[in-house]
Specification:
Blueprint (H helix, E strand, L loop, with lengths): L1 E6 L5 E3 L8 E3 L4 E5 H9 L3 E3 L2 H12 L23
Antiparallel strand pairs: 1-4, 1-5, 2-3
Length: 87
């Protein structure tokens, strides 16, 4: 059975789902569907936590909200007010 985990480690987590034959990299703050044994292993190491349906819906709804873009800052020319002749 698959469960959803939220990676809580502050670094990318390498984890193998097949006894080390290959490794997957899980990014911090992201959600992943993984087998139960992988979720238990990640939780035991303090790298992830299982997310239930209500929390998953809440996270996905929050991430779907439009993000406010930062204000555009006009680039400034040289300190003396002249224009650059590199153009």
């Amino acid at each position: 059975m698959q469960v959803v985990v939220l990676i809580t480690a502050p670094w990318p987590v390498d984890y193998s789902l097949n006894n080390g034959l290959s490794r997957m990299q899980y990014q911090p703050g992201e959600l992943y569907a993984v087998p139960e044994f992988a979720a238990r292993g990640m939780w035991a190491r303090g790298w992830a936590r299982v997310v239930d349906k209500e929390e998953l819906d809440s996270i996905l709804k929050e991430r779907a909200q439009p993000q406010e873009l930062p204000a555009f800052i006009e680039p400034k020319g040289p300190a003396d007010g002249t224009t650059s002749d590199l153009a």
